[in-house]
């Protein structure tokens, strides 16, 4: 089966919406510091002219573009769409009263917080189905755990999602639903909302946090097991990045997590085992208080976890 025909099969027919988060753009004051950090995290960091490109080992998708800039900030998001949806998006943006620049490959505009956005014809990067999850438990005839000295580094396989501050949460939900076609998965009051692409996606493609925006809260990177979450977190801690939250399990999304605070006060998440919303499923969203929705188990949330240092 070709990739193209496979994409057609997992498309929600008759619905206009982006299919994937293609990449993010972030400015940081010191590219050398960024190169060191993301390399330690397990990504392949390539020097590309005056920027850094973030890749997962073995993949050609550039998930992040890191530019030199002060102060640190989330500088843009690019979403992927099907080729025949791009002209529809142009008409749709006009109807929505969103001013944009466009060509035959993409449209560029801004969200209500002024964050630059792009919708681009691009290959699907969303998962086609529930991501593989390796229970990595005990074995009846041999030891399942590797020797610590022989343990392989955690290498995330894809960008799972991105979470950002968006100002008024309802305004953010409405914009990303009405303009980009994302759907609300679940929310927690006016604190956080999780949204997914309609053509088959993990439980969240993006997460929006209420409060002063814009700003990056975290990027989240998919790994294959709880063990990989722990090995990655341990490697970061041994290299000085021990301000973290995890190991734990979220309720909304169900993923096992460990967040590491980056050099700029935002976070980078190892994530395993997230819920999946197929293209033919209308997920029933819930609105739960934080005591029931934030995490099922895990350590106390560290101080400053939900601070937006880009607006401090
Ligand atoms: Fe996350």
Protein model, in words:
The chain has an eight-stranded mixed sheet with strand order 2-3-4-1-5-8-7-6, with helices on one face. The protein has six helices and 18 strands. 42% of the residues are buried. The chain has a single domain, classed as 2,3-Dihydroxybiphenyl 1,2-Dioxygenase, domain 1 (Roll). Strand 6 and strand 7 form a beta hairpin. The site of fe (ii) ion has 5 residues, from strand 9 and strand 14.
Helices and strands in order, then pairings?
Elements: H1 3-9, E1 20-28, H2 31-41, E2 44-48, E3 51-55, E4 64-68, E5 73-81, H3 86-96, E6 101-102, E7 106-110, E8 116-121, E9 158-167, H4 169-178, E10 183-188, E11 192-196, E12 201-202, E13 206-209, E14 211-222, H5 226-238, E15 244-249, E16 256-261, E17 267-272, E18 276-277, H6 290-293
Parallel strand pairs: 1-4, 5-8, 9-13, 14-17
Antiparallel strand pairs: 1-5, 2-3, 3-4, 6-7, 7-8, 9-14, 10-11, 11-13, 12-18, 15-16, 16-17
Bound molecules: fe (ii) ion (FE2).
Fe (ii) ion (FE2) binds at residues 161, 163, 218, 220, 269.
